[in-house]
Amino acid sequence: MARVVSIWLPNWATDRLRRSKRRSALAASDRVAWNRPLATVTRDGRRRILAAVDDAARALGLVPGMDVAHAQALVGDLALVPAVPESDATGLALLGDWCHRFGPIVAVDAPDGLLFDAGGLAHLYGGEDRLLEVLEARLSALGLAVRLGLADTVGAAWAWARFGPAGIIESCAQHAALASLPVAGLRIEAAIAKRLGQLGFGRIGQLYTLPRASLTRRFGPHLVTRLDQALGAVEEPVAPLTPVEDPNLCLGFAEPIATPEDLTRAIHHLCAGLCRMLAEHGLGARRLLLVCHRVDGVNGRIGIGTVRANRDAGHLARLLLERLDTIDPGFGIEAMRLIATRTDLQAPEQLGTLHANHSDGGDGGGDAELDMLVDRLIGRLGAAHVYRMQPVESDWPEHAMHRVAPMAETYAAALPVLPRPVRLLAYPEPVETTALMPDHPPAQFIWHGIRHKVVHADGPERLTPEWWRGGKDRAERDYFQVEDESGRRFWLFRQDRAWFLHGFFA
Amino acid sequence: MPALRAWVARLEGRVAMGVPHEGALGFGVAAIDAALPGGGLMRGAFHEVSGGLTEPGEAASPGIEAALGFIAGIVARAAGPVLWVAPRIELYAPGLAMAGLMPDRLILAEAGGDKQVLAAMEEGLRHKGLKAVVGEADAVNLTSSRRLQLAAQAGGALGLLLCRRAGENPSAAVTRWRVAGVPGPGRLRGQEAVTLSDMGRAHWRLDLVRCRGGEPQSWIVEACDGQGRLDLVAELGDRSAAPVEAAFGARRVG
Question: What is the Cα–Cα distance from A365 to A186, expressed in whole angstroms?
C-alpha cells in the first residue's frame, strides 16, 4: 500500500508574501508594516474582498471572503496586499521542487498544498514520525505554517492534515480515522458539503452506510468517487512534478559552475551519457528536460523536442545549448539532471546520418538530416510555427488545405480544375465596387484605399459551402479572376451582394 | 574557342557566360539562360527577387505576387525538399501546385521578423538535405546578404529571398530580379468595358537588375505553366488570336 504525505500550508499566500519581503532588503519602517496583521485582497464582481488572511488577522476575527471595508473597520492596522494567484501557483511549484530533497515523487496540490509520496522512504529517516518531524521542521524553518497528514491514500492524508488532528493514520486504518471528520474533508465542492450538512450528514462516517446509488443521484458521481479515493477503494496516483521513471542522468559538481563554457561541457557530457543509455534500450529521445539545480535551491529548466526519435548526442546537445541563455546560473549550479521525458523506439539503422530515404514524399537523400534541421527550427521558432501544408479535396477555398506536422506523411489530393491564386488572404477583405452589369465582375474596385480598374476578367465560378462541415458561412460565393490595368490579377468574390477580395494570382 | 573559354573558366573556378554549368538551374528559355553565367541560376548561391517598383505617379502597387509565382516556378524545377520562411505565410497550396510546386515538398516556417527570417534561412542554407531555401523579408542589408551567400556556398542549395520592399541597397546576391505583372493578352487597345473571357497565362515584366558576371536585361514573359516553366511572349504579330468569350460558358462549376 502506498503512503502519502499531504502537506497543507494554511497561510500559503500570506506566508509567501512575508517570505519574499524578508528576502528582499527593505527599509526598517517598511518591515514594521509586515509585522501587522496581513491579508490579501481580490475582487468578486464589484466587491473588494479578502482572499487570504494570516494567523494574526484570523485571530482578530477576519475570514477570507469578508468585505475589505468590514475588515478594516474591525482591524485598524490591517496590512492589505493584492492577491496574485499566479505567483502563488509558481511559488508552490518551486517549493515542490525544493521538496525533492526529501524524496523523488512530489506533486503540487493546488492551491495551498503539496503531495509527497513517502512509500519506502520512512526507514531512511528512522520511521514515519521522524520523517514528518523532519518535513515539518524544514518547512517551518522557511517561515511557513504547515500541517502534515500521512496516510495510505491521498484523500485520507488530505483530510487528516486539514480537518483531523494531523499526523499519521496507520496503514489500513483510514476507514475508522475519517469517520468522525466533517464531510468537507472529502475534497468536494463547498455547495455539496453544505447540502449534506443541511440533510444531517455532517460526518464522513455517516456516508459509509448510505446506498451509493441514491448518493450518486442526489450529489453527482464526484462525491462517491472522492469517498472511494479517500478510503482506498479507487486508486489515485500522485502525478509527480518531475517524472522519475524516464531515462535520466545526473551530474553533480564538486564546485558550483556558472560560466557558459562549463555549462556547455556539462551538457555535452550529459547528452553523450544519456544517448548511450538510450542506445542500450533501443530508444530515441522525443523530448528532453534539463534541470539545473542552483545553489540557492531554485531550479532552471530547458525543455526541447525532436520530430523523430533521436539519440545523436551532438544534435541533442546543440538543441539544448540554443536555449542555454534562458538559464540564469545565479550563484552557481551544483547539479544538472537530463531526463528523456518522452522516448520512442528507434531502430539501430536510423542512427546513421546518411541512410537511404524511405518513401516520404520528398525525393533526395538525408531524411535524418532534414529531421535535425526541423528540430532546430522548432527550437528556434516554436512547434506551432513549423509545418507542412496538406491539400484537401474541397471546393471551398479555406478548406482546401490544412496544416500538418512538419514530418507527417502527406498524401496527394486532386487539385481544383480552375485557376487558384498563389496567395490567399486568411480572411476575405471587403472591397468597394462599381458594378455595371449584374452577374458580371465589377468595373472597378477599391481595396485599401486604392482604386483598381478592371480590364479583363474570367468567371463566375460558383462555389457552395459544404453544409456537412457546419460553420456559419452558408451563402454561396461567385468567384471572379480579374486583372487590373497594371496587370495584377486578383481573386474576387461576391456573396450576398457584397464583394470581397480573397487572393492574388501570380 | 568556347571550349577553351570553358576550360579556362573551370581552371579559375568561376562560372563563365555562355558555358553551361552543372550547378546551374536553367529557365529553359534560351534568351534568359544566355544572359546568365553558367546558363541558369547557380545553386549554392543566393538570389534576390523583388516585386515591381511603384512609379511616382502610379497609385496601384504592382504587388509581390508575380515575384512569388516566379520563385514558386524556380523552386518547382529544383527537385527536392524546400524550406520556405516568412513572417506570415499566406501561400495557397492549390495555387502553388498549379505552378508546378507540389506542397508536400515544402516545409514552412513562420518567423517573427526579418531578423529571424534571415537567421532561419541561413540555418536552412547551411543544411545539406535541402534543395532550395526561400525567405520573405522587407529588405536585406549587405552584411546579412553576405552571410546568406556564404551559407548557400557551404550548403549547396539555391537561396532565394523575396524582398517586399524593392530597394537599391547594396547586396551580395549573385543575381537580383524584379518581377511585376504587365497587362496580359486579351486586352484590346482603347477598350473601355470589361472583357469577360479566358484570361490565359499572366504576363510578367522580368528584369534582371543585377547579375554578377553578366549584364542587366529585361524580358516580357508568360507566367509559369503547370511545370513551373516560363515562356517568352511571342511578338505581337505571331500572337494567337484573342480568346473568345464563348469558351467560358462550358466551364461553370457548382
Answer: 60
Query: How does DSSP assign A245-306, residue by residue?
Result: SS-EEEEEEEEEE-SHHHHHHHHHHHHHHHHHHHHHTTEEEEEEEEEEEETTS-EEEEEEEE
Check if the beta carbon of residue B204 is closer than 8 Å to that of residue B72.
Answer: no
Question: Which residues of chain B lie closer than 8 angstroms to A362, CB-CB?
Answer: 80-81, 104-105
Residue from A319, A436, A486 whose CB has the most chain B CBs within 10 Å, to mutate: A486
Q: Are strands B217-222 and B231-232 parallel, antiparallel or unpaired?
A: antiparallel
B93 to A370: CB separation less than 8 angstroms, yes or no: no
Asked if A388 lies within 8 A of B69 by C-beta distance, the reply is no
Let me know the angle formed at the C-alpha of A383 by A380 and A389, rounded to the nearest 5 degrees. 115
Contact A202, A185 (CB under 8 A): no
pLDDT at B241 over 50: no
Residue B249, pLDDT > 60, answer no
Give the integer Cα–Cα distance in Å for A492 and B98: 19
**B33/B24 Cα distance (integer angstroms):** 10
How many CB atoms sit inside 10 A of residue A434's CB? 12
Q: Give CA angle at A363 (B14, B28), nearest 5°.
A: 50
Nearest CA in chain B to A391: B93
- Parallel, antiparallel or unpaired: strands A432-434 and A444-447: antiparallel
- Cβ(A500)–Cβ(B74) below 8 Å: no
Q: What percent of chain A has pLDDT over 90?
A: 16
Under the banding of pLDDT at 50, 70 and 90, the label for residue A244 is low
CB contact under 8 A, B63 and A436: no
Distance CA A337, CA A343 (A): 16
DSSP assignment of B44-112 equals TEEEEEEEPPPPTT--S---SHHHHHHHHHHHHHS-S-EEEEESS--B-HHHHHHTT--GGGEEEEE-S
**Is A506's CB within 8 Å of B180's CB?**
no
The reply to whether residue A365 touches residue B129, judged by beta carbons under 8 angstroms, is yes
- pLDDT for position B7: 73
Asked if A421's CB is within 8 angstroms of B95's CB, the reply is: yes
Contacts of A380 in chain B (CB under 8 A): 111, 116, 119-120, 123
Give me the DSSP letters along A63-75. Answer: -TT-BHHHHHHH-
Mind listing the pLDDT tens digit for each residue in B46-102?
Answer: 999 988 765 544 444 567 888 999 999 999 988 888 999 999 888 998 899 888 888
For A383-449, strand residue ranges (E) read 386-391, 401-404, 423-430, 432-434, 444-447
